[in-house]
Amino acid sequence: MTAETFLPFSRPTIDEATIASVGDVLRSGWITTGPKNAAFESQLSEYFGGRPVRTFNSGTCTMEIALRIAGIGKGDEVITTPISWPATSAVILEVGATPVFADIDPVTRNIDLDKLEAAITPRTKALLPVFLSGLPVDMDRLYAIARKHNLRVVEDAAQAFGSLWQGKRIGAFGDFSSFSFQVNKNLTTGEGGCLVMNTPEEARLAEKYRLQGVTRSGVDGIDVDVLGGKYNMSDIMAVIGLGQMKTIAAVTAQRRKLAEHYFAAFGTDFESATGAQLPVQAFDTSNWHLFQIILPDRGPGTRADFMTRMQKEHNIGTGYHYAAIHLFTLYRELGFKEGMFPIAEKIGRLTVTLPMFYTMTTQDVERVVAATRKVLAA
């Protein structure tokens, strides 16, 4: 094994002021949802151009609640991508609807909008695109399709905090935008997420869904008029988010700088020399949440061998995001099978996530590139 320090594929950055603020919350006596959460929601709303925002304890329930607010349920179909974390399709099942997959674009690795539109049926009620690695789909085309077919859109923007489309922040326009604040995200609260909505009425309904459907009415007691869950964000999490908001512009700029250095270090001959595929150079849109390559297909075990050698021989951590959802046991039991979405299946077998985080240096990037070339050359 190399003697160099271990380089993980991701690492959160929490400054000392934020750590101290967590202690202040713990000493305050108000730990659950309270004033820090309200302040965090206010800052998020301002960040997204004044749209209503509500926070939650995960970026999974935000999508489920968006579907519920949109009235999606039994008998409805929701079209999504097979390349995502399992939560993306699980929330469709949770509301009683049917997930419909459309294959992905081999270049962007996002859902192929041509195939998405071809998958629309009379039962389709919503679209649930994923912005993989922080790269948005073509938002103009997506919403043109949605308007044409009278469909709601729930954007799985879990990885896209700080991403742009035509100069506008993802979340500052559109229908529902769901963000994750899980520990590896560009902005983290440890766990958690937020949902950006359209109207005050949707925001009030989201508040009910996140706290057991309760309608509060002071001394007159409470009432419940919808079936909700326990999804609220604590002030402990919210105060971390407030600290992260102070640095998100710098975090996004640094990630773009690191991505640019990755491309420069890999050089123009990398793909032809190794057979691997680099991501799209989308510096005007992506927040570079992840930097992923597609490995050359060398048969079963290609990715496992690469990841093992990167760690054992070079002390570099890698990951993969993601396996093809429709090949999981749960979805095979629903009738999905191998060969249905061949591009997703190939990329799901061969994608690898290289290190990318705020405190990385350009020297770290060069170390990763050198190790990647060495492993692929063997």
Plain-language structure description:
- By secondary structure, the protein is α/β, with parallel strands linked by helices.
- It folds into 2 domains: 16-245, 3-Layer(aba) Sandwich (Aspartate Aminotransferase, domain 2), CATH 3.40.640.10; 248-377, Alpha-Beta Complex (Aspartate Aminotransferase, domain 1).
- The protein is 39% helix and 13% strand.
- It has 14 helices and 13 strands.
- It has helices at 16-28, 35-47, 61-69, 87-94, 113-118, 139-149, 200-210, 235-245, 248-266, 270-274, 302-314, 329-332, 342-350, 362-377; strands spanning 53-56, 77-80, 98-101, 124-128, 152-156, 164-165, 168-169, 176-180, 193-196, 214-216, 222-224, 291-294, 351-354.
- It has a 7-stranded mixed sheet with strand order 1-9-8-5-4-2-3, sandwiched between helices. Strands 6-7 form a two-stranded antiparallel ribbon.
- Strand 2 (77-80), helix 4 (87-94) and strand 3 form a beta-alpha-beta unit.
- Helix 3 (61-69) packs across helix 7 (200-210) and helix 11 (302-314) packs across helix 14.
- The longest helix has 19 residues, at 248-266.
- The chain is globular, with a radius of gyration of 21 Å.
- The relative contact order is 0.17.
